[in-house]
Amino acid sequence: MPVPSSSAHPSRIPKTTWLKLGWAWLVVIAFTVYGGTWLAQPLTPVAAMLCFAVLFFTIVAASFGVVHEADLLAHKLGEPYGTLILTLSIVSIEVILIASMLLGPGEFPTIGRDSIFAVMMIILNLVMGLCLVVGGLKHGEQEYNAQGANAYLTMIVLLTGTALVLPNYLSGAGEFTTLQAWTIAAITAGLYAVFLGLQMGREKRLFIQPPAGQMAVAAGSATPAPNEPATESGDNTSIWRSSALLLGMIIPIVLLAHHLAIVIDYGVVTAGAPIAVSGVLIAIIVFTPESLTAIKAARSNEMQRSVNLCLGAFVSTVGLTVPAVLVIGLVTGKQVVMGISMLETVLLGLTVLLGMLSFNSQRTSVMQGAMHLALFAVYGFLLFNP
């Protein structure tokens, strides 16, 4: 895969990057100075719509900026480091938005579970389905590292089962007790830290493209296949610059998240929409840039990167969001409901089972992608017609 054109002139920062950065910080300044007036109660529909439009556009644009800089770092550092930087950056934004909803003026005790579940359905069914279909139509059957895919899916089964299903069978009726919450948060964070360490260390070979015709990379070998971007060395300046720009894009999202939470709260209540729509909105805002990157990778015949982005994104979502939400609830005294409904439990089971069947062979197919898209269509329908 060719290195982006911007890396051909490492001393230059594209004008689009300056525009995104400048606009994001301009909006931050505007809402810092006038946000209290614009979003003062009682909030009018016109003011809410205008503020939502500006905030939505700004946060999505900044997210695209984060993806761009993380993508440059991916080409500098190689896999799986590049994908990890991208995934962790995006998931951090999601955690920030969820925290803002929890700490906002409204009561959203289920925002954590709703966001996690929405991310699962969007990433593992809609985006993964599109990757399989788009990649399959252009390149036919595509290969990937089956061991890495199985490792992701195993983590997904354990983390989602513990965080979203187990609470329904405890005494708290969908909630963890204080001791249970601290314990689950610690176990989840600890397991994810171990998984991350192994992914970047001795188990790195599970997450890189295997040689043609093989389902795995042999132990003791972690050399990227020809279609994997190779690590570039001797360019520390551009790495530091991309890292600084990445942070420069994330910070405005942090500062604007509280204002967006107020508008989303107002919109959901006014429209009488299901509370779960808040989680869907957060998932769309956060994961649209990364989703487009995954689809682009599949179209470029980099199915391993698509797998790392999609499955890895959801593992990171659960591994980081669950501890963050539980700790915020414990520290602030906010109610946090993690248990999903029976309908959602069935959809979770179908998603995990379909994912396991889709990634238990050496190659992908368009038919598998169509099945994932069909399951997402069912979810979208049942969201408003349970």
From TrEMBL:
Highest rank taxon of the organism: Bacteria
Topological relation to the membrane, as annotated: Multi-pass membrane protein
Keywords: Membrane, Transmembrane, Transmembrane helix
Subcellular location: Membrane
Entry keyword Transmembrane helix: yes
Predominant location: membrane
Membrane-spanning intervals of the chain: 21-40, 46-68, 80-103, 115-137, 149-167, 179-198, 244-262, 268-288, 309-331, 337-359, 366-384
One cellular component (GO) term of this entry: plasma membrane
PANTHER family xrefs: SODIUM-POTASSIUM/PROTON ANTIPORTER CHAA, SODIUM-POTASSIUM_PROTON ANTIPORTER CHAA
Protein name per Swiss-Prot or TrEMBL: Sodium-potassium/proton antiporter ChaA
Sequence ranges assigned to domain Sodium/calcium exchanger membrane region in this UniProt record: 49-200, 244-383
Gene Ontology molecular function terms on file: potassium:proton antiporter activity; sodium:proton antiporter activity
A Pfam family matched in the record: Na_Ca_ex
